[in-house]
TrEMBL record:
<comment type="similarity">
    <text>Belongs to the binding-protein-dependent transport system permease family.</text>
</comment>
<keyword id="KW-1133">Transmembrane helix</keyword>
<keyword id="KW-0472">Membrane</keyword>
<dbReference type="InterPro" id="IPR000515">
    <property type="entry name" value="MetI-like"/>
</dbReference>
<dbReference type="GO" id="GO:0015184">
    <property type="term" value="F:L-cystine transmembrane transporter activity"/>
</dbReference>
<protein>
    <submittedName>
        <fullName>Amino acid ABC transporter permease</fullName>
    </submittedName>
</protein>
<keyword id="KW-0812">Transmembrane</keyword>
<dbReference type="Pfam" id="PF00528">
    <property type="entry name" value="BPD_transp_1"/>
</dbReference>
<keyword id="KW-0029">Amino-acid transport</keyword>
<keyword id="KW-1003">Cell membrane</keyword>
<dbReference type="GO" id="GO:0043190">
    <property type="term" value="C:ATP-binding cassette (ABC) transporter complex"/>
</dbReference>
<dbReference type="InterPro" id="IPR010065">
    <property type="entry name" value="AA_ABC_transptr_permease_3TM"/>
</dbReference>
<dbReference type="InterPro" id="IPR043429">
    <property type="entry name" value="ArtM/GltK/GlnP/TcyL/YhdX-like"/>
</dbReference>
<dbReference type="InterPro" id="IPR035906">
    <property type="entry name" value="MetI-like_sf"/>
</dbReference>
<keyword id="KW-0813">Transport</keyword>
<feature type="transmembrane region" description="Helical">
    <location>
        <begin position="29"/>
        <end position="51"/>
    </location>
</feature>
<feature type="transmembrane region" description="Helical">
    <location>
        <begin position="63"/>
        <end position="86"/>
    </location>
</feature>
Length: 228
């Protein structure tokens, strides 16, 4: 769908007419990018956390290097390496998949430390109790440890999810037509940068506020199962 916004609009009219393109960008790209990257990132995080908890140095090493590399470099640089750098090696990836790869790897590294810390926070007595009734280590992990660790990790993982919504604005720099990219395109035609960037910020704020309410409700739900 094409949106034509004239450069000679008044402030309020411009605000109203630019709202639909920005919301469209959020629905088509920002939200899907956030959801896909976060789900894939959690899978990467769980695998990485399990590798970090392994007693084998050979298994630990790749996970340690991956987490260190991702946490030690800016997300923007990671995006640029994937989208602008890989073509020099003959591997060209479209903007949206490039953003998904970059955000997934970034989420995976940070979330893996949250999951690892959550697992380590579960007392050894839980493991011993599971072994006492004949559970294997894998079964104990699935049925006893991970469910408890999941409850512990909900607040920090929820914060990571909300942060990811804001981080998706960086995808505008590799031509993904998400919310902020739409604001940039309209601003380039109207030259009213302040108004449009404030409008984009308000939309991000509304999305994050709604997610914060959902986070609070989720935490209260998990609190029901915590012994007082």
């Amino acid at each position: 769908m094409l949106y034509t916004i004239s450069a000679n609009m008044e402030g309020w009219e411009l605000f109203v007419n630019s709202l639909l393109p920005m919301i469209s960008g959020a629905i088509k790209y920002t939200i899907p990018l956030t959801l896909i990257s976060f789900v894939l990132g959690l899978l990467v995080a769980l695998l990485t956390a399990m590798m970090r908890l392994s007693k084998s140095a050979l298994i630990q090493a790749p996970a340690v290097i991956y987490v260190s590399a991702i946490r030690g470099t800016p997300l923007l640089v990671q995006l640029f390496i994937i989208f602008y750098g890989l073509p020099s090696l003959g591997l060209t990836i479209d903007p949206f998949p490039s953003a998904i790869i970059a955000f997934t790897l970034n989420v995976g590294a940070y979330a893996s430390e949250i999951i690892r810390a959550s697992i380590l926070s579960i007392s050894k007595g839980q493991w011993e109790a599971a072994f006492t009734i004949g559970m294997t280590k894998t079964t104990a992990l699935k049925r006893i440890i991970l469910p408890q660790a999941a409850r512990v990790s909900v607040p920090p993982l929820s914060n990571s999810f909300i942060s990811l919504v804001k981080d998706t604005s960086l995808a505008s720099l590799i031509l993904v037509a998400e919310l902020f990219r739409k604001a940039q395109e309209i601003a380039a035609r109207t030259y009213d940068f302040l108004l449009l960037y404030i409008e984009a910020a308000l939309i991000y704020w509304v999305i994050c506020f709604i997610l914060s309410l959902a986070q609070t409700a989720l935490e209260k739900r998990f609190d029901r199962y915590v012994a007082k």
